Amino acid sequence: MDLDVEGIIHCIKQGDENGVQIQLQEFNKEYAQCFFFDAEERERSKQRKLEEFRKNKVRDYEDSDSDVDECEPEDRGLLLRQNLALVLMRFIRSRVKQRLLRVSLRTLRILSRDKKILGPLVTDSGLLTLANLAGLTTSDTSDETNDPDSDFYDNIIASLAEANIYQSHVNEDEGEAEDGDENDECPAIDEDSQSDLSNAHSADLDSVSWFGSHRTSINEMHRGGTHQKVLERGKRDRRESKVVVEEEEEEEEAAPGDEALRKEAMKVLCNVVYNSTWAQERFSALSLLSGLIEHLSSSVNWSCPSSVQFYELRLMFLTTALRPELGTQLQQAGGVPLLTAALESILAVQWKDQYECVLDRAAPPISLEASQRIVEILKIFFNITYSSHRHEPSEDDAALYRHLVAILRLCLMRKCLLADDTTELQGHTVNLLSALPLQCLDVLLTVPLEPESKQCLGVNMDCVHALLTYMENRLEMGDRIKEKLTPILNLLTESCRANRETRIYIRKQILPPLRDASQKPEEGCTVKSRLIRLMTHLDTDLKHCAADLIFVLCKENVRRFVKYTGYGNAAGLLATRNLLGGQTARNSGAQYSSDSDSDTEEYRQVRDSINPVTGRVEAQQPDPMEGMTDEEKEEEAKRLMVLFNKLSSHDIIQPMGVDEEGKLVPLSGLGGNPPAEEPESDGETEEGDKN
After folding, report:
1. 447 pLDDT more than 80
2. What pLDDT score was predicted for residue 138?
3. CA dist 184 → 40, 175, 181, 398, 426 (Å)
4. CA–CA dist 153, 529 (Å, integer)
5. pLDDT value at position 142?
6. What Å distances lie between residue 553 and 4, 463, 475, 506, 512, CA to CA?
7. Segments of 147-212 assigned E as strands
């Protein structure tokens, strides 16, 4: 990075704001799309490691393109960024012109993507300065005077000069090492600095150090804190990736000055909170969430938002996701009605009844701006309600949740401008529905029928059909299958267990009456076969979710479950629930009707030829004992018993059986009491279902 930090400092000392602005604008233009610094240095480091691996046969070499790889020795580019961040944080606290302040914040926003330079931004003073510029606090954090601190800037310049001299020596040493074919690398910083930087890249610490008289560290503060989880780095925000520098500058020219300033400060805060656990802790300790709640509460018209609203929502999502106590604080401060009102305003909801919104199928698609704000709101909702389904809601809470669910119905049924946005909106809606109390989801089914509505026994199934369609689309996606499928599978399972009409409708779509038993249940491209394939997936949670859904669709009847899936696929769930003996599931909490089971004519014709393990008709196999006398058969049985006893005595195998409770136990513990067989009738009619 060819950055003239010394020139910027000299301009600040001399009061040349125009010079500062020009240099920062050049930096912003060049690095606006830069999200990973030191790429060249990391590549050189990897090449050195590779050479070392080849020469010394070191087996711990790891090739990684991550931006948080193991810390390498300090380089000049990192040092420049660290000092630039330090200088700018001091500079923006002085009373500078608004346009220069906006440019400085944009530079800080670019720098804040790098975890290694966050030191001056995560101090209480730095966080309060940014919060004040973002409108979250009202205290004046600016300096009383514009006179520069000459000692401060002189020390920074001196430290840069020292680093330049040191770096030149390092480069010379590296050149000599290459000429002499040496493997030892010359360190660019002392051991203390290496320790600081190593801590800066540890899994739960975000610290920074810079050279010269002002080289400090916040490692000690980090060590004293309780660190929360860190969000996974996801795809780059489309809102940012679609905006080039020129368009962004035009947008800011059109936006009001204060609004553009607040947006830049909010972006910096989002980056800092996302990248630093220390900033997350201090955000909580400084009570900055209260200012954010107050600001969102004062939004007059969500349908015509200011450009900063999206980033306010993004910051609220980050803080509630990374600090659980902030999610609790938001909920206690009336977060549910606040966010519900925002959602209602963005969607321009019109009410037909207490818990029924008007669904205009001819309405235009949801715009990109609106869909992104809705998604952020749904993510915040999940953070503050994810445990609500475990508790019985009070009467007031139940009314709030039903009001919210009625609006979520629109999120399921409405379309966005882009198909990917529609899928994303539906996914976050499903996540939130799975977090809310199950009894509050009844408003999804109480909507009156319309001529084009899907229905079952007179109940509107439009939302259930939308959920089924969403699940089918998720089944076809090969990436991140667990994250995408487990919420919808759990939601459908609990809905089927709680509501008879929902179960009947979904069963007809997924488990139609069996007619063809020529192939295994897991073979094919139907929804049923895909779900059955998931029942043997390597991920335990995913396979249990898929098996639970089919088990509930079979009214938790073991014989019917095996009939549709095959014993081999069903064994995992049956063993988990101690149902290997064929007993009926107990204590499930669901009430199922008890009527007779009538197989289709096609199934009855081949029923006796179906292999219960594979679940399909198998070709007739020759009898292996054909032609053997009774004495030969008895001798063969004795030989097999001797082999089994030998394997068992050496603890190679342990013969097991199923007791009366359906549990696997050693054969010696069965006591000669085999489990009773379940009657053939299982209490359900497939054709003309009476469920």
Report:
1. yes
2. 73
3. 20, 12, 9, 67, 55
4. 69
5. 56
6. 68, 18, 18, 8, 11
7. none
Higher pLDDT, 33 or 450: 450
Q: Tokens for 542?
A: 């995913």
Mapped onto helix, strand or coil, the DSSP state of residue 616 is strand
Q: What is the rounded distance in angstroms from the CA atom of residue 25 to the CA atom of residue 21?
A: 6
Please name the amino acid found at residue 647. L
Closest CA to 293 of 314, 312, 307: 312
| pLDDT tens digits along 471-487 | 999 998 877 788 889 99
Q: Is 459 helix (H, G, I), strand (E, B) or coil?
A: strand
Contact 292, 312 (CB under 8 A): yes
CA atoms of 245 and 29, how far apart (whole Å)? 7
Q: Give yes or no for residue 371 having a pLDDT over 70.
A: yes
Q: Which CATH number fits domain 260-496: 3.40.50.1370, 1.25.10.10, 3.40.190.10, 3.40.50.720?
A: 1.25.10.10
* pLDDT surpassing 80 at residue 325: yes
User: Over the chain, what is the mean pLDDT?
Assistant: 78
Residues 630-664: tens digit of each pLDDT: 898 899 999 988 998 888 888 888 887 777 776 77
Rounded CA Rg of the chain: 33
**The two structure tokens encoding residue 417:** 């401008």
- Residue 63: pLDDT band (50, 70, 90) is very low
Is residue 624 classed exposed, middle or buried when 0-12, 13-18 and 19+ CB atoms within 10 A define those classes? exposed
Residues 58 and 254: their CA atoms lie apart, in Å, by 58
457 sits in the region (left: phi over 0; alpha: psi -120 to 50; else beta) called left
Cα angle: 210, vertex 213, 219; to 5 degrees: 45
Cβ density class 187-213: b for 16+ within 10 Å, e for less: ebbeeebbebbebbbeeebbbbbbbbe
- Give the closest residue to 679 by CA, choosing from 544, 510, 559, 500: 559
d(CA 236, CA 274): 13
Would you list the DSSP string of 427-447?
A: HHHHHHHHHS-GGGGGGGT-S
Helix (H) or strand (E) holding 455: strand 455-456
Alpha carbons within 13 angstroms on the beta-carbon side of residue 32 total 18
Amino acid 664 reads L
Q: Please, are residues 269 and 121 in contact by the beta-carbon 8 Å criterion?
A: no
Parse the chain into domains and list their residue ranges. Answer: 5-223, 260-496, 497-618+646-691
C-alpha span between 448 and 446 (Å, rounded): 6
Q: Are 189 and 73 in contact (CB under 8 A)?
A: yes
Q: Please report where in the chains the tokens 């081949």 appear, as a residue.
A: 606
At position 431, the amino acid (one-letter code) is N
**357 beta partners:** 351
Q: Tell me: pLDDT of 361 over 90.
A: no
Residue type, 666: P
d(CA 8, CA 14): 10
Sign of CA dihedral 276, 278, 280, 282: negative
Residue 132 has pLDDT above 90, yes or no: yes
Residue-wise pLDDT tens digits, 583-614: 666 656 676 776 445 678 777 777 777 888 88
665 secondary structure, DSSP code: E
Question: Of 606, 530, 520, which is closest to residue 568 (Cα–Cα)?
Answer: 520
Query: What's the mean pLDDT in 87-112?
Result: 91
